[in-house]
Amino acid sequence: MYRDNKYIIKHLVHSTLLITISLTSIVWLTQALRFVEFIVNQGVSITLFLHLTLLLVPSLLIMIFPPALFASVLFTYNKLTTDSELIVMQAMGLSRWRLARPALIVASVVTLMTYSIAMYLQPTSYKQFKDMQTVLRDSYVSLLVQEGVFSNPVEGLTVFIRERDSSNKLYGILVHDNRQPNKSVTLMAESGRLVESPQGPSFLLENGNRQEMNNGRLSLLNFEKYTLDISFYTNSITKRKSDVQELFLPELLGFTDEVSLNETEIMKRRAEGHQRIVWPIYNISLTLLALTTLISGQFNRRGQWQRITIAVVIATVMLFAAVGIRGTMSVQSMMIPVAYLALLLPIFIMCWIISDHIPIKRAQT
């Protein structure tokens, strides 16, 4: 590999990594804040919380790679121009494609990485994320057995457990059900345990009393054993409907046997499948846009902020258009060819411009 290629690639890789890590960290933090409730309300450990939220990183990387690479190419090539290095390379007789080669090499590698994430890593990690999220939200057994904590598994229901022994037997149990304001129920028991039944999980209480306040009238019931059904707020994760982001490409495009789906679900799958094919190529498309902006036309040593601004605006329009088309593909199948056209047409135009169809003028001093 030529020295100039290695030199530019090194700068591109460093800046791409820095921008990608920075953007991913910021977006991941905003997403992670949505799940703080698991720590506050359900006592999830920090380790489990990090495991859950880190499973979102592959999905974030897919979206972040194209704009991060675009910013990296703009920064690197603008710096080379400002330091007159790019002008010297051009004066040495290097063609535009020779100057663009390092960025296209990096873009090709990033595109392959994005495809590997989109085709395998994202559906795998997102399925684990949804399964874990369902367990934490719908399985309240771990929540109910926390010692010395007033827990609210659902609105209007309060549970307190004083202690638990090594055999998972519970002591000092208080359950207050105020979901119906005119009919509040309070259960207190010396001991009990959580049991599984064909109908779902239940609370088996021993040696306690049940106090019910119904329209201002109090009724008291002492019991030796009392079964409290808690299956009304637990669900089986085996019945969870798969999200389109959990499916692999053959499942999205209908190449495998699948259960009968309605037309809306089929269109959503098709849209997600074509989006996974189209989106990674935006790494190359936006790289060509940055290159077209900075190595075509007139070099200006006094600054290229105008061209950079135009490139940023065009890139923003392209990305928002891609996201918008993704949404309409799930409703109108005729938008699928538009998604490919919106991607490939700018690539052809930018390749035409880079191919010396617009002469390079001398740099302004």
Largest sheet: 6 strands, antiparallel
Fraction of residues in helix: 55-70%
- Helical stretch tally: 12
Q: Give the low-confidence spans.
A: 359-365
H/E topology pattern:
HHHHHHHEEEEEEHHHEHHE
If you compute it from the alpha carbons, what radius of gyration comes out, rounded to the nearest whole angstrom? 30 Å
Strand content: 15-25%
Give the oligomer, counting copies of the same chain as homo and different chains as hetero: single chain
* Main structural class: alpha+beta
Strand order of the largest sheet: 1-2-3-4-5-6
Q: What's the mean pLDDT score?
A: 83
Shape from CA axes? elongated
Beta strand count: 8
Distance between the termini: 33 Å
Keywords:
alpha+beta, six-stranded antiparallel sheet, two-stranded parallel ribbon, 12 helices, disordered C terminus
Give me a quick take on this structure.
The protein is an alpha+beta fold. It has 12 helices and 8 strands.
What does this structure look like?
This protein has helices at 3-32, 37-42, 46-54, 57-82, 85-91, 96-138, 141-144, 249-252, 263-278, 282-295, 305-329, 335-357; strands at residues 150-151, 157-164, 170-177, 183-197, 200-214, 217-229, 298-300, 361-364. The protein is of the alpha+beta class and 365 residues long. The radius of gyration is 30 Å and the shape is elongated.
Topology at a glance:
Blueprint: H1 3-32, H2 37-42, H3 46-54, H4 57-82, H5 85-91, H6 96-138, H7 141-144, E1 150-151, E2 157-164, E3 170-177, E4 183-197, E5 200-214, E6 217-229, H8 249-252, H9 263-278, H10 282-295, E7 298-300, H11 305-329, H12 335-357, E8 361-364
Helix pairs in contact: 1-4, 1-6, 4-6, 4-10, 6-10, 9-11, 9-12, 10-11, 10-12, 11-12
